[in-house]
Amino acid sequence: MANSIGKSLICALGALFLLSSTLASSDAPFIVAHKKATLNRLKSGAERISVSIDIYNQGFSTAYDVSLTDDSWSKDVFNTVTGNTSKSWERLDAGSVVSHSFELESREKTLFYGAPAVITYRVPTKASLQEAYTTPILPLDILADRPPEKKFEWRLLAKYGSLISVISIVVLFIYLVATPSKSGAAKGSKKKR
């Protein structure tokens, strides 16, 4: 009996040790980053790329000296219009979000495969810098020949709109005259008694 109590006590202490070590290791910043890029064709024959990067700290402690570097944009193909491809923050508290955006312009027709941006941060309990990566972006088909988008034809609405409204009013009137009303059906059943 004393032997089984000793074994169960050792198992309980072992489980408590594993649980405490798991909780202690989870008390660190956990960086999740999302990178997205959108294309906008300009009339001047260039294409503008708007890049937005959101950095989330999903951990339970603060990340310090957070820096974002996005060097995947080649200087031969892209010109920076607004913003920078890198940014730094002093700290990123637990559960908080920071965003960074910049715009680039390209006059070259190409299919561009962008790499994830790199985020480095410092954890107070570790000496070395930690790294995280953003999500990759889908390939960007810059200055591609796109078929024209079909837009709603306002001319057709102006030309046939009045005809459609008259026809729908006539059909509605015929429907109301042809279908018996519920109150008339109830009166008819009373007269039959």
Automatic annotation (TrEMBL):
- Supply the source organism for this entry: Escallonia herrerae
User: Which GO cellular component terms are attached?
Assistant: endoplasmic reticulum
**Domain of life here?**
Eukaryota
Q: Which PANTHER family match?
A: TRANSLOCON-ASSOCIATED PROTEIN SUBUNIT BETA, TRANSLOCON-ASSOCIATED PROTEIN, BETA SUBUNIT PRECURSOR TRAP-BETA SIGNAL SEQUENCE RECEPTOR BETA SUBUNIT
Q: Per the record, a Pfam family?
A: TRAP_beta
Keyword Zinc-finger, does the record have it? no
Q: Can the keyword Mitochondrion be found in this entry's annotation?
A: no
Protein name, entry field = Translocon-associated protein subunit beta
Q: Where is the signal peptide?
A: 1-24
Q: Which UniProt keywords apply?
A: Membrane, Signal, Transmembrane, Transmembrane helix
Transmembrane region positions? Answer: 160-178
